[in-house]
Design brief:
With about 325 residues, the chain is an alpha/beta fold. It contains 10 helices and 14 strands. It folds into 2 domains: about 110 residues, 3-Layer(aba) Sandwich (Rossmann fold); about 180 residues, 2-Layer Sandwich (Dihydrodipicolinate Reductase, domain 2), CATH 3.30.360.10.
Length: about 325
């Protein structure tokens, strides 16, 4: 099969990483870029050598891509996925899949071609390596994880819409960490959550503490905050403690992975190996964008289901909804995918 032909819809802030990464993905090329803002579409075209469009419907009709990469914000995901379905085009769609789980279910209901959510935290090298150690039995049977993502980095500067949403850090960032918890410890029986509005000027919660009971019996804690004053600030790193009946793994700041077993400690450097175009501050995320997009193309070409397929991401999204339900009820809630 010759290289797959793709189109990117939404050429804004984060899509710059998609566009640069597509140049490095093997087995696919971007032939069209689309943005309502013609200047953004033209800039994306210059970056990729693709043709620029400002209307998604005419782009689908004229370009007939094999897949589309939807990199707009979440409220546009359903109409664009519906357009893709109408044109029988496979979809990779940025997170959050949609604003709520009812919309996620509608998208999955009308989609017949492969669909994957661009959920890239599990495609970060440190987390790939951590999961590989767990799967190899480094801790024995896991029973606990602590997953921390606490920063004072100004996320709203690059994504101003985040200050306007009622559901803030869990839907934006917690969704990544909930996927990581599932990636490391499997699916979840119930979840308890507490939230705080800690960012002046933001409508939604900017910090949250979540406690998950996994089907395996393991328990994990997720602690996330956008208003943590700390130096050095670990942004955008996820720090993880993971314990089992034979040992423990500790993903420390600056990509130091410690394995503790039988009184011995082994240290592994799991720093990302970013592409040449990466920015040092975002290199961890940018490498994961490339890994995520390569995984999508590999799955599309082989017919394998992607790790973060739409159907899989529905389970992560169900945890987001259960977390908000718990924050409202004060009780542990059961996720309903
Ligand atoms: P943005 O607002 O900067 O860019 C979105 C672009 O989509 C805009 O240029 C807009 O003109 C365009 N657009 C909107 N509707 C369109 C339509 N109908 N047709 C064509 N273009 C249209 O948004 P952003 O900050 O880049 O975020 C995009 C998504 O990426 C969000 O869902 C966000 O959560 C996600 N994101 C993911 C990561 C990650 O993967 N780790 C990091 C940051 C942001
Ligand atoms: O990765 C993301 O989805 C961004 C964040 C600020 C969490 O990096 O929104």
């Amino acid at each position: 099969m010759s290289g797959l032909r793709g189109a990117v819809i939404g050429c804004g802030f984060f899509a710059q990483n998609h566009l640069k990464a597509w140049r490095d993905v093997e087995g696919a090329r971007i032939v069209a870029v689309c943005d309502l803002d013609p200047a953004r579409a033209e800039a994306a075209a210059a970056l990729t050598g693709a043709r620029a469009h400002s209307d998604a419907a005419s782009m689908f009709a004229e370009e007939k891509p094999d897949f589309v990469d939807i990199a707009t914000t979440m409220e546009i995901h359903e109409p664009l996925a519906r357009l893709a379905a109408r044109h029988d085009v496979a979809v990779i769609c940025q997170k959050p899949f949609a604003p709520d789980i009812e919309t996620v279910r509608r998208i999955l209901g009308f989609t017949r071609r492969p669909i994957m959510v661009h959920e890239n935290f599990r495609f970060q090298r440190p987390l790939i390596e951590l999961e590989r150690h767990v799967r190899a039995g480094a801790v024995g049977t896991p029973f606990f994880a602590h997953i921390s993502w606490r920063t004072g980095y100004d996320v709203v500067a690059g994504q101003p819409y985040l200050a306007e949403v009622e559901r803030f850090i869990i839907l934006d960032l917690g969704i990544h960490l909930l996927d990581v918890a599932r990636f490391l410890l499997g699916d979840v029986a119930d979840i308890h959550c507490r939230t705080r509005r800690t960012m002046p000027g933001a409508k939604g919660e900017a910090s949250a503490v979540l406690s998950l009971r996994h089907l395996s019996g393991a328990v994990s804690q997720i602690v996330c905050s956008y208003t943590t004053r700390i130096e050095p600030d670990p942004f955008p790193q996820t720090l993880i403690e993971l314990e089992g009946d034979r040992g423990s793994l500790h993903l420390r700041h600056d990509y130091r992975l410690e394995h503790h077993e039988r009184g011995r400690m082994t240290v592994h450097d799991v720093a990302p190996r970013p592409p040449a175009w990466a920015d040092p501050q975002w290199a961890l995320v940018q490498e994961s964008v490339l890994n995520t997009q390569q995984h999508w193309i590999d799955c599309l070409r082989s017919g394998r289901e992607p790790q973060t397929s739409g159907a899989d991401n529905l389970k992560t999204f169900a945890l987001v909804e259960a977390a908000y339900a718990s924050a409202a009820s004060g009780r542990a809630e059961v996720p309903e995918a």
